[in-house]
Amino acid sequence: MTATSGTAAESGRTAWRNWAGNVRATPTRVVTPASVGELQEAVRRAAEQGLRVKAVGTGHSFTAAAATDGVLIRPQALSGIRSVDRAAGTVTVAAGTALKDLNRALAAQGLSLTNMGDIMEQTVSGATSTGTHGTGRDSASLAAQIRALELVTADGRLVSCSEKENPEVFAAARLGVGALGVVTSLTFAVEPLFLLTAREEPMRFDRVTAEFEQHVAENEHFEFYWFPHTGNCNTKRNNRSQGPAAPPGAVSGWIEDELLSNGLFQAVNSLGRAVPAAIPSIARIASRALSARTYTDIPYKVFTSPRRVRFVEMEYALPRERAVEALRELKAMVDRSDLRISFPVEVRTAPADDIPLSTASGRDTAYIAVHMYRGTPYQAYFTAAERIFTAHGGRPHWGKVHTRDAEYLAAAYPRFGEFTALRDRLDPDRLFGNDYLRRVLGD
Asked: Whole-angstrom Cα distance, residue 186 to residue 400?
């Protein structure tokens, strides 16, 4: 049905699936509100009809956090920068804005977010609600950069919150997994545009794990990738620079980011799926083919890169002091198993923050992410990895594959009860509930 004045665009039962293709849902209807008022009306109408409501961004989560058989809200029409406050160092942006559009718009105004994850396809509300993060000594997650937000609650009210206004809602809703309402706008801290110098360098597994804390301490943003079936890693160190800008050349950038990271990587994974026995040999060749490079550019062009090869991912947040031991156990498990892993394992860090359901809540954190090519059986690998991560007190990423439930998560998050009590107050009838939230938050 086509939108008319004052009415959100709607469509009937249409199958929805996420980016990776591992989650599917068939909502009763899909609503694309063009204004906050239309969104409020869609929520009220769903409540009257006894239908549950979920908002979905670009589907980059690997969990069913946004799946529903009720009303699926597509916020993409609610997009764009609403205001910039240079004195306060903030930007207010509508919830359906894609991170790539926000980054480009900010750069055009000489501004930047402090940190980013490694892709920018997600909507700002989807990314923050599931805990998207980059890597950083002093900053990492997008949610920790939020200074205010607005959301529509189960009774159709629009609630504004910040540290001063509805502070208890603000504390939790920065990372709410869609359980508290539908976010309509977010206010982020921003700063004048700056330059980052990225230094990418191959390094042996034994060295990078032995020097892990040193690398974290010495660099503003440190991460590395270990190639299973090898002792090889690739490290990346991003630090602020006085310039001048020196981005990768057009040809060398295309070779690294498109040919090697996407085109050739796609072909290698397709071969590995067809002939799993070849994966260890391919991994050894691929990991040795990496070379060091250094370049300088504006932040989002350094933090993010195109990801066209589709995969399924599990990521756990561990106390940082436990990460190296867990990673060594993961390597030993892969080495002695019959598993064939064609994707590298990613390791990043984050400082402690004060968000109740943040994976870095209350503790300095290291993230270990495992991936499998889409269409490749991943359960055995992920199950073995999850056993290691949970033994070290790991917290699963809210938007990535895991099997944890509310009982486990209540023990893993000291402020879990604070969040669920707020949920009981804001959404007692679970208008925004679904099967995933029932599992991870309880009912």
From this structure: 23
In whole angstroms, how far apart are CA 73 and each of 178, 323, 443?
11, 38, 23
* Contact (CB, 8 A) for 113 and 86: no
How far apart, in Å, are the Cα atoms of 240 and each of 164, 236, 244? 32, 13, 11
Q: Which amino acid is at 355?
A: I
The verdict on whether omega for the bond into residue 244 sits within 30 degrees of 0, i.e. cis, is yes
Separation of alpha carbons 277 and 93, rounded Å: 48
DSSP lists the bridge partners of residue 158 as 152
Instruction: Read off the pLDDT of residues 333-386 as tens digits, 9 standing for 90 and up.
Output: 999 999 999 889 999 999 999 999 999 999 999 999 999 988 899 999 999 999
Q: What's the confidence (pLDDT) of residue 278?
A: 76
Which residues partner with 252 through β-bridges? none
Q: Measuring CA to CA, which residue among 32, 128, 124 is closest to residue 77? A: 32
DSSP type of residue 257 = I
Question: What Å distances lie between residue 361 and 95, 137, 138, 274, 418, CA to CA?
Answer: 23, 15, 14, 41, 13
| pLDDT per residue as tens digits for the range 140-193 | 899 999 999 999 999 999 999 999 999 999 999 999 999 999 999 999 999 999
The low-confidence residues of the chain, meaning pLDDT below 50, are: 1-6, 251, 254-255, 258-260
The model carries a pTM of: 0.93
Can you tell me whether residue 201 is helix, strand or coil?
strand
Q: How far apart are CA 49 and CA 54, in angstroms?
A: 15
Residue 5 DSSP label: T
